[in-house]
Amino acid sequence: MATPYTSRLPPTRLQITEPLRVIVFGGTGVGKTSFVNDASRSNLHIGHDLESCTKAVQPGPIFSIEGRAIQLFDTPGFDDTTLTDTEILQQIAEFLLNLHARDQQINGILYLHRITDNRMSGASVRALSLFEKICGSQAMRNAVIITNMWSTPRDSQEEARENQLKTEYFHNAIANGAKVARRGGIGPESALAILSLILHCAPITLQLQTEMGIRNLPLDETEAGALVDQNLRKRLERQERERMELEEELEAARGEHDRRAQEQLERFKRDKEVEVQLLRQQLDLLRSASARQHQSFQPPAETGGPHPNGSNSRPGSRPGRGFGWGRRRNQPNA
């Protein structure tokens, strides 16, 4: 039976209806934007292959399910090819803090994963871990992990893969109350059926909102920020080690007067030095995020004016605060 559906609420309803807000997470190319478009019958731009078109958090239009207003927010993929993990985390953090500042509550979180992936890649593991750190265990009761892009008819290998994902990778989220759902196909019906699972969930505060909005922590001291920092340092250590190995090989080639090997190794070494520099820049960006965001983040005044999603302030919403953008721990000079 199809889920009762109304495409978009008329302007008069938008002014008096506080929508249920659902944040859509996942890696690049897993179908997040398609899910938002199918559910809301909108046309947010969709990327092709592994190149994402979602470079910032995109709000979909407000629509209704079973008479309840709902709005989906499409987030950049954690393994985006043009944005770094640091930049993506900063964008998501600023978006979540804007919601928190305006008392705009979150009712659900979705995480999409391709069932067609033969294995859980390193990028997929990092994306799932970052999702869990952003949201926190308490928010998992409002989460649905969606396996997407199933074959028709069902493929036994995909079903076996689903069982492995549940036991080896999704088990922490499931233990904390997350649901796992298959998206049976494209189109509104499958998307709306999944949204009906969280339609009556009470509002939640995500862990990142608590850390920065209530505990006043800077981004790099949050669990999500610490995870990105840890991943960057591991990658930097590996790249530095490979750079040193190339230097040793280059010295050996010079000693043997092997001109061709020298040219090739020098090219490899230059590429490796660029990678090392980019990773160092990401670490510097993460450490300086609080100061930069303190300058750029402008908390909204309590005017009752329109919000970015098209709705108005609720009575009694508190004015925005700095949320730890400016508080820094003592750090040695670089």
TrEMBL record:
Boundaries of every G domain copy: 21-97
Chain residue ranges for the region called Disordered: 287-334
Pfam families linked to this entry: MMR_HSR1
Gene Ontology molecular-function annotations: GTP binding
UniProt biased composition (Low complexity): 308-318
Coiled-coil residue spans: none
Descriptive protein name: 50S ribosome-binding GTPase
